[in-house]
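This section describes the prediction task in plain terms. A model, or a person checking by hand, is given the sequence of a single protein chain and must write out its three-dimensional structure as a string of tokens. No templates, partner chains or ligands are provided. The sample shown here is typical of the held-out split.
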Amino acid sequence: MEFQKFLGEGAFGSVSLFKYKRRRDGKTLHAAAVKTSDDEHAKSLYQEFQVLSEFKGCSRIVQVYGNRVQARVNHMGYVEHQIPMEYAAEGSLRSFMNRFKYGKLPEPMIREFTRMLLEGLATIHGRGYVHCDLKTENILVFPSCVYDYNKGAWRWSYELKISDFGLSKKEGDNKWWHPDQPFAGTPIYMSPESISHGETGKGLDLWSLGCVVLEMYTGKKPWWHTNDYLKELMNCYEPLFPSNLSCDAKLFLMTCFAVEPDERKDAFTLLRHSFVPRDVVNHKLAKLQTDVKIDNPKDLEKIRHMLHEIKSMC
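The expected answer:
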């Protein structure tokens, strides 16, 4: 692979753009975003690779290439651990938002992006995982073309995929939690129950989703209005809503920020919310059902019923 440019750096390593030639013809150039960690942070990288390997073929999850983490010695003589992943040409959702005035996205785009994120969370939760660090920096934007049936023409669009699974956990796992280190992910996106006693259920991701939706509306990080957000969270308050939100947007956010995690529903249920666009085509629903691993026949029947209801609204 040939190095192209440095893309960014996080708590557990850096990401760079590489180009490589397809083995089949040796000529066609492809891009890959390669995440690199040193020995100290390699555990998180190996965990991320293991989780991402379980989501191969899932349309709303960033895809990892290869069948193992690659280890090599760099020019300084240190061992580096790397995983190649698909490259998002539009960058993170945060950097994408920065191109708009005040960092605010148009409401139709927010609704469509919310649908995509719910599809991703339905896949993640359906396989027993909680992402634990959903935020705009960990959501990637891919350019896309879609066919507009109303206008009978193709139009430029975008697709979102969820990335950065280094902190993800199996649902219900709270062994990691300690009062002195109460954050599974990024504090301002965490839910009250995850901070107070380390609960990592799907409700955590749905609270974080509410924070992301708010951020798309305001262009600001959640809790921008206070420096004491931990106290607010411990008292089960939600971040401040803009006064000009539509009614269904407020209702959606109130569901995401419900005090009790179970009252936040689940990603499949929220896909039926009036805030979410209802033009989801049948093949996407079928793909989503394939992405979700179902072991209990009763759960499968429940999801089939949900899918039927969503289709009936389209």
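For orientation: The first helix runs from residue 42 to 53.
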